[in-house]
Amino acid sequence: MERLTDHLIVISFDCLSALDYPILRDLPHFKELLRRGSFCNRVETIYPSVTYPCHATIVTGKYPNRHGVVNNTLLQPGRDSPDWHWYRKSIRGTTLYDEAKKAGLTTAALLWPVTAGASIDYNMPEIFANRPWHNQILVSLLNGSPLYQWQMNRLFGHIRNGLNQPELDDFVLESTIETMKRKPGLLLVHFTDLDTQRHYHGFSSKEARDALHRHDDRLGRIMKALKENDMYEETAIVVLGDHSALDESRAVQLNILLKEKGMITVTEQGKISNWRAYCQGCDGSAYVYTKDDKTASEVKWLLEKLQPDPSNGIESFLTGEEAAEKGADGHCAFMLEASRGYYFKDALEGPFIHTITPEDVRKKRYTYGSHGYSPEKENYCTIFMAAGKGIRSHQEISSMRLIDEGPTFARLLGLSLEDTDGEPIKALLDI
Q1: Cβ distance 429 to 408 under 8 Å?
Q2: Within this chain, do residues 26 and 173 fall inside the same structural domain, yes or no?
């Protein structure tokens, strides 16, 4: 298959929304990208629209129940901090970076989700120490490219302030620019500054707007580096979001009711010792898993009682079969969708509906903004922009889907992803 570009850089600005477009089009570096290239500001995300399933979809072109990453976290009832789907092995089938590597392209990924242990030449995976005996630097080094990560930390580690933003993205930016000197054929980079600000300050907060301006500066630095490395004319550069977000002020804590109904048993220390039903939150949505049909019937009865009352924050619920039809995990008994202003938490203590306070957010126990909601929610689309070699100019694509992005990237690089749910957006490609 004909290769349309020499290099592909995919920049994920986590939580970039179609609603940001009026701001982006007036920022200098986004404006330059739009002037050269094409865009779509109506990109349908996936369900649940949380970061790890979204990023696995972007590199596979498949819905979550087909690539296997159905939530950010693993189902580990009772763990204070469940493990995430950090590892490449969570993804079933091939990925864009696998196919690029097979084709002899140099590959790089910086904090791209679900890449720990992946066969990527320059790999700095997004993974954090999740056990008391773990060390963050060692966990990162052992699950990515050790020498490469050691070099980036030696050069730019002083910029970081733990996992805090915007310092983390500033570290990722400097590492990206240094990595570009190696002229990878495929570079995937994930920035989370905007997502963090929207979680803890709200969708339209000053902090979120400031993050958009910082992202414009970061985009400008990357485009400048392309020119300095004589890659500008030979590179397709893509900027995308994975999902949008919605403001919320209340948390639905269904596990508290399940515990009251005897479906979850806890120890005196508050740890789960046994469960028949468990609600695993995906922020704006949630899975309910049950261990037998009788329990599923009990949960259904409970949900049918709760859902009609708007104050319970449950907009709707699906059966596992219905969830699978939308690309979510069909192994759940039910999938819940939160009403606007609500999201789901896995808490075992407190009220069923918790009203969020500034102190809750300051201590990062709760948030003011969430994603994970259904792609069918109004004004909940994300955005896609592309320019450079292999990309047509001045095309406004009326609509596309997150599942179409991986096949589009594969076509740019002359590759093929197996059995995708999405299709290449040919109107974007200079074929």
Answers
A1: yes
A2: yes
* Strands of the sheet with 277-282, listed across from one edge: 277-282, 285-290, 334-338, 314-319
Question: Helices 28-36 & 206-228, crossing angle to 10 degrees?
Answer: 60
Residue 89 has what DSSP assignment?
Answer: G
Whether 1 is in a domain gets the answer: no
Alpha-carbon span 413 to 407, nearest angstrom: 10
Strands 341-344, 353-355: pairing is unpaired
pTM of the model: 0.96
Tracing tokens 């039910």 back to the chain, one arrives at: 334
Q: Are 205 and 372 in contact (CB under 8 A)?
A: no
Residue 353 sits in which domain range?
247-370
> H-type helices in 104-181, by residue range?
136-143, 146-156, 167-180
Is 352 among the domain residues?
yes
Q: What is the pLDDT of residues 305-321, one digit of tens each?
A: 999 999 999 999 999 99
Q: From CA 195, how far away is CA 256, in angstroms rounded?
A: 28
Distance of CA 124 to the CA centre of its chain: 16
Question: With contact defined as beta carbons under 8 Å apart, do 3 and 201 qualify?
Answer: no
Please state, in angstroms and rounded to a whole number, the distance separating the CA atoms of residues 221 and 216.
Answer: 9
Question: Using an 8 Å Cβ cutoff, are 181 and 229 in contact?
Answer: yes
pLDDT in tens, 173-227: 999 999 999 999 999 999 999 999 999 999 999 999 999 999 999 999 999 999 9
